[in-house]
Amino acid sequence: MREHTPRVLALRAPSERLPSGCGACAARRPSLCPLRARLRPSAPRMRLAVPGCAAMAGALRKTTGLVGLAVAENPHERLRILYAKILGVLQNIPKDAAYRKYTEQIVNQRLNLVQTETDVQKLQDKLNSGQIEEVIVQAENELSLSRKMLQWKPWEPLVEEPPSNQWRWPI
Question: Which keywords does the record carry (predicted)?
């Protein structure tokens, strides 16, 4: 965890300067920053409406901010399970199928990140796919798609030949 290095916020006068949050908090949300609370709990005109020191995000995060998407309690475990299931389904698809090659590559990269990175915030940043809960939804959707691809068998040849002018426009 990073050392708590506060930024400074000017309130009324230069003599009344307070830290605006910890150095790890990119959103500059001071209300729950432990250092700020210790220094001046009753500072005048201090805005305390928004939660959030990033150092405390895991302990204090109660919502994703996205309607209908709850906070994941064990995101690493959930992602490990989902990625293992996806890889299991992909084992039933022929090795030369494009879907298997590329999906397997992406899932293995993400699984490696999940196994190596223990901090949820850093994992979100490395995956670069939104909040960790959104990544879980993406993995669930990929698992569903991989099962459907196994049923559809798009790697097999077509049952009948397509018409010769199928891709010409206008006819």
Answer: Coiled coil, Electron transport, Membrane, Mitochondrion, Mitochondrion inner membrane, Respiratory chain, Transport
